[in-house]
Amino acid sequence: MSDKPENNAYWATNIKIVTWCLVIWALVSFGFGILLRPLLSGIAVGGSDLGFWFAQQGSILVFLGIIFFYAWRMNKLDAEHGVDEQ
């Protein structure tokens, strides 16, 4: 494994992106779906309360959005560091 500065910058940025994606996913799925559910129970969405919606559909939709964001951002990062697929 080489310790080139450009490799370190690439992996540091990759880890930062992964960390932020996991924080957002945890906040939405655990925070909104479980911890903040009582606060969100008064807001109606599609016939149920917002806390239930986050626990059932919202966390899944946010997770899918994170997957697409990660793929887009990693393609951009790969191109910046010259390791993209041609």
Explain what the structure shows.
The chain has three helices and two strands. The chain is elongated and about 55 Å long. α1 packs antiparallel against α3. Strands 1-2 form a two-stranded antiparallel sheet. A hairpin with a 2-residue loop joins β1 and β2. It starts with a helix and ends in a 6-residue tail after the last helix. The longest helix has 31 residues, at 5-35. With 86 residues, the protein is mainly alpha-helical. The chain has one domain (5-80). The mean pLDDT is 88.
Low-confidence stretches: none
How many domains is the backbone divided into?
1
What is the CA–CA distance across the termini? 24 Å
Strand line-up in the sheet with most strands? 1-2
Shape: elongated
| Helix/strand structural class | mainly alpha
- What's the number of extended β-strand segments? 2
Average pLDDT, all residues: 88
Strand content: under 5%
Total helical segments? 3
Largest sheet geometry: 2 strands, antiparallel
* Rg measurement, Å: 18 Å
Protein name: Putative solute:sodium symporter small subunit
Keywords: Membrane, Transmembrane, Transmembrane helix
Pfam families: DUF4212
